[in-house]
Structures are given as C-alpha cells and as structure tokens.
C-alpha cells in the first residue's frame, strides 16, 4: 500500500494554502458561463501543466481532462467550472469583474479544490491507482455539459466517479452524505397558446387565451399530483408567464415556462406523455391552440450506497464523527447524473458556511464561502482516495 495521501495532502497544503485561495479568487473574479469558460480553461491547463501533468482540452474548446497514473482502470473526480448569468452583489476584493456573471453556485470552489488535489497527486511518491480529473463545462445549462463530456470519452476506462458540491447550509468541516437520490431530475416545460384575439368586452366571440393560461397555471400542477405516485416527489413550478399588453384586448399568443422535477428515475423517462396529455385536456374546452415543448433536461443523481460508505469512512478518518452529516434530498438538478447513467458514483455536500454566519443560498448574487472550506475539500478528497484504494486491496 502507498503511504497515506491524506497525510501528503496535509503537508502539501502547508506550503500551498495561499495558492489554493488564489486560484479560487482568480476564478471567482473572472466567471464565465457554460461553453464560454475559455479563461477558466487556460488557468486549469496552466496549473496542471505546472504540476508536470498532461491535460487535454475537450473538443468544444472549454473543459479539461487530465489523467494521473498509467493504469487501465480509472477512478474519476469531477469539478464543474461554469458560472451563472447573475450579477455579483458582494463587496469583496475578488468580486466578479464580468458584468452580469457570477460564481453563485460554488463552481470556482469545486475547481480550485480539484486543482489542489491534482497537485497532491502529482507530488505523491506512490499512488494506489489511476485517477481521471474531469474539469467539466456548462453544468448550469440543460442538458448539461456532463452529457457532452461523456460523449467526448470522459468515462472511457472509468469504473467509478465522485464529486463535491458546496452546501451553504452546512458549516465548514461538515460533509453531507446520502445514499440514493440526492438531487432531482430537472426538465423544462415550454407551452405556447394561440388564438384569434379580440375585445375583452366580447370574449364569447373569440378565444379567451388568458383564461386558458390561468387554467393551465393552476390545474396542471394539481392534476399531476393525482396522476403519479406522490412518493415520486413530482414538482411543477412555473417561472415565466407572458401574454398581452393592453387591459382591454384579449391577446393572440401567450407563453408559459417552468420546470418539472422529480426524484423517481423511472418516472423521469415517461412523464412527458402524462404532462402533454393533461395540458391538452385542460385547454381543450377553451378552443385555444397549444404547442408543448418538454425538454427532458437531466436525470436525478442517485448515489451508490457502497461509494457513500467510502465517503463516510473518509470523513471519519480525516475529521472525526462530527464531520459526518446527513443531507436532505434536493429538488435542484445536477448534471453529474449523466455520469451515473454509465458508472456508479456519489456526490457529497461540502460545508462552506462559517459558524454563526448567515445562510446565503445557492444561486443568490451574494453567495460566498468561508475559504477554510477549500482545504477541507482537498483533505476529504485525499482521504476518500485512501479509503477507495484500501478497499480495492481488500477486494483483490
């Protein structure tokens, strides 16, 4: 067995903590949205090359894959690298310099941690196995850059995959773990209604399109709850509704946009037909024309129980029992799920909130972290590799 990578990580962090924070701040101040992460990709390549590694860019121009070790079977670690189209409202020295773009989901944190793990691996005298580092673009876009990365060959030779995601509800030093579904599938629903329009004084002579929209807004979510098993946790929420411009004119078109989320992976594959059928039935008495676009988006992330067991052992070994925390299921989508359609894997939550600090939710413009979480993420990942390799030796 090689010496403990966690011990090596502690030594490495002793001499590189400032660099780790610097990478995170550089990424945070120059955020880029999905498939536009060119500066981010250059930073990743530069740092990895500086470690003596051989990174390769993905063919679509952003994102990086880098192998450490030469074995045929790889364990993969994934970090997402894109930001959100949101303004950064924080007053900090590392606030976003790109107007309207912000790392409000912690992907800068994920990337900086994986860069530090790469440095630890590159400097280790001996490794217990081969590692693939996946710096993945476009997590925030549907269906997500993970699907494209898989098609690119990111999982070729990979048998398992792990990832971390910031959790501002957990304090620094806590690792949130869960077996089974940890995030929901996320699907986008776009509906367009059309009719001849007319005067609001004579709705009987035309098609009352706004009335039909109102029926869809209220009845479709309710009817879904009566057509599917409630244990599937189906949630339809509208995010954008638009129609008309004058108080006394019935409009000719209207649009509704929302998301359909669920935790049941099997239902994800067949819910489109149920949604489409119900929507058409709801508006049929109104005589409006309806166009429905249902984008399947991403499936649910379902964590492998055995791999969550290794994550638990790693958290205990590195930090003690106080670090292990149950984490609730989230109805948010996460394209890490695409990797799990091919290989088993597990996503863990990384506590990033300073003790006693207010909770800034993900996707908020003032989202920030306690930067002590960066070293915690590196140590946890190193300890996870130790546990994985030790288990592999037992099973050999």
Condensed summary:
The chain is an alpha/beta fold and 396 residues long. It contains 10 helices and 16 strands. The protein folds into 2 domains: 274 residues, Zn peptidases (Aminopeptidase), CATH 3.40.630; 114 residues, 2-Layer Sandwich (Alpha-Beta Plaits), CATH 3.30.70.360.
- Uncertain segments are none
Structural class: alpha/beta
Kindly identify the CATH topology of the largest domain: Aminopeptidase
Rounded radius of gyration (Å): 24 Å
- The CATH homologous superfamily name of the largest domain equals Zn peptidases
Figure out the total of helices: 10
Q: Major sheet, described briefly?
A: 8 strands, mixed
Order of adjacent strands in the largest pleated sheet? 1-2-4-3-5-16-6-15
User: What is the highest CATH level, the class of the largest domain?
Assistant: Alpha Beta
CATH architecture identity of the largest domain? 3-Layer(aba) Sandwich
Helix/strand order: HHEEEHEHEEEEEHEEEHHEEHEHEH
- Strand proportion, as a percent range, falls in 25-35%
Large-scale geometry: elongated
Terminal-residue CA separation: 12 Å
Taking all residues together, what is the mean pLDDT? Answer: 96
Helicity, in percent?
A: 25-40%
How many beta-strand elements? 16
Count of individual domains: 2
Summarize the structure in words:
There is one protein chain. With 396 residues, the protein is α/β, with parallel strands linked by helices. 36% of the residues lie in helices and 25% in strands. It has ten helices and 16 strands. The protein has an eight-stranded mixed β-sheet, sandwiched between helices. Strands 10-12-8-13 form a four-stranded antiparallel β-sheet. Strands 7-14 form a two-stranded antiparallel sheet. Helix 1 crosses helix 10. The two termini are 12 Å apart.
